[in-house]
Structure formats: C-alpha cells, structure tokens
Prior knowledge:
The complex is a heterodimer of chains A (253) and B (73). With 253 residues, chain A is mainly alpha-helical. Helices cover 79% and strands 0% of the residues of chain A. Chain A has two domains: 2-128 and 198-250, no CATH class; 133-195. Chain A starts with a helix and ends with a helix. In chain A, 37% of the residues are buried. With 73 residues, chain B is mainly alpha-helical. Chain B has a domain at 28-68. Chain B has four helices and no strands. Classes of the chains: A mainly alpha (253), B mainly alpha (73). At the A-B interface, α1, α2, α3, α4 and α6 of A face α2, α3 and α4 of B. Chain B: The chain crosses the membrane at residues 24-43. Chain B: Pfam families: CbtB.
Amino acid sequence: xxxxxxxxxxxxxxxxxxxxxxxxxxxxxxxxxxxxxxxxxxxxxxxxxxxxxxxxxxxxxxxxxxxxxxxxxxxxxxxxxxxxxxxxxxxxxxxxxxxxxxxxxxxxxxxxxxxxxxxxxxxxxxxxxxxxxxxxxxxxxxxxxxxxxxxxxxxxxxxxxxxxxxxxxxxxxxxxxxxxxxxxxxxxxxxxxxxxxxxxxxxxxxxxxxxxxxxxxxxxxxxxxxxxxxxxxxxxxxxxxxxxxxxxxxxxx
Amino acid sequence: xxxxxxxxxxxxxxxxxxxxxxxxxxxxxxxxxxxxxxxxxxxxxxxxxxxxxxxxxxxxxxxxxxxxxxxxx
Lengths: 253, 73
C-alpha cells in the first residue's frame, strides 16, 4: 500500500515535471533563444576567420529539438527527484495539506537547486566563458548546487527539531538564518569566476540571465501547482471518487 | 484524543499520513540515481568529462545547457 503510494507519487512527479518542462520550454524559446542568438552573433563577429568550427548540429535544430530534449529531460528528472523528496516531506514538515506541501517543496527546491547556486555562478550565454576552465567551472557549479541542497535539507531538519522549543515561526526563522550563515562562507571563499569578454553587450548578458531565471521560476512554479493538484487528488480523493475507488478495491479480481 | 484525530471535515482536511522511509528507500535509490544520470547527460556530458566520445550530445543539448545555467564550454 505504502510502496504503491510512493510509486504513484513518483509517476505523478515525473508527469508534472514533464508538464512544467513544456511551460519552461515555451519561455526558453520565446525569452531565452533571442539572447542566445545575439550572443552567438557576438561570438562569430569576434572569432578569428579560421576558427569557425564545422557545425555538427545546426542552429535551427539546437534552438528547437535540442532545446526541447534538454529542458524536458531536466523537467522529468527534477520532477522525479522532487516527488521522492515529497514522499519524505509529506506530513513531516508541518501541518500542510498535500497541495500546500507540494508548493512549499517546489519553492524550496527552486531556491536550493537553482537560485542560490545562480547567485554565485550565474548562467552564461555562448561567447562568455573560457573553454580551458570548463572543468573548474563545472566542478564549482555542481559543488555549489550540492552544498546548497544538503544545507537546505539540514536546515529543514534543524527547524523541525527546534519547533517544539521555539514554536514553528521562530524555528523557521532560525533554520533560514542558519542556512544563510553556513552558505555565506561558500559565497565568500569559493573562487570568483568572471570570464565575460570586455566588450560583450551588458544588456544581452542581463537579459539572458533574466530569461534563464524566468525559465526556472516557471518550471518550479508550474511543477508545484501541477504536482500539488495530482498529489491532492491521489491522497485526498473527493467523496464520490473515494466511494468508487473503495468499490474497486473491494471487487474481487 | 482518538475522536479528535479521526474526524476530518470540509473545513479541516485530514492531514496527510507520513509514508514510512522503508517504503520510500528502494524507489529513492533506484530512481534517484536514474534521474541524476539523466541530469548528468543534460548538464555536463562532453563538457568537463565525457562518457560518449565526440561532441554530438554536447551540441544537441547546447542551448538547453546554456539556458538551464550549466557551464557549457
């Protein structure tokens, strides 16, 4: 029974992630792609003539099918992971309904998985970034992401421990403060990366980063609402549906 | 006490029961790893490290990788 609930939530999480991925894809195509194109235009204008590489995948495929593949897989994968985290959080993080738990988890995931790492190592358009440092930049980005997620989990557990003593409000404030105090040194002491070419247009960089952030807001916001709806219907079926499912469960098969 | 727990009404919906961690663990281990592998292929394959040779995967998800915030190249 419980294992079946976990499976049902996982499937719904991946479906909701796919749905949210479609919404994020629309934002990526209309808000993000124009800035990617501008950045590539800058890159080509500044590359020495002999350095033009042979295209393996054309730009028109990269900006449509390729973009869709990446964004949808990202949505499904994070949807699945978020659903598993939801199984643990459900009924453990506080007095929230299934739907509210989903939106709360989604908001925390947006901050921990994306916004906190983004504030230290923001998204970069093509033409920004030195190819020789890709290893270092990838390591630092994933380190920041893992650190932020683990600290968010630790802060949640801390808040839950403090709640009986301090009350829910002050326990939550203390947990968020603890998260900020511990993540602070990571912001201060991890290496700074600035590989923006001196004459790269500032507005393109700013708009590219805003569109990247907008995609994540839409992805996680959409996921929270979609998954919350599906989870609520699964866990708190309406009376008529409850009757029907009870009848199905009782039927011999 | 018992009657307080067992009476959900329209205004006070029943609080969700917790799922035992033992029931979650096998799903979390198997699907958690599978999802992380998917994220690796979208986010990092043929960038800093490569499982598949060439640059086909990198080029195919190029735009997604930039817009999702992963270091691309």
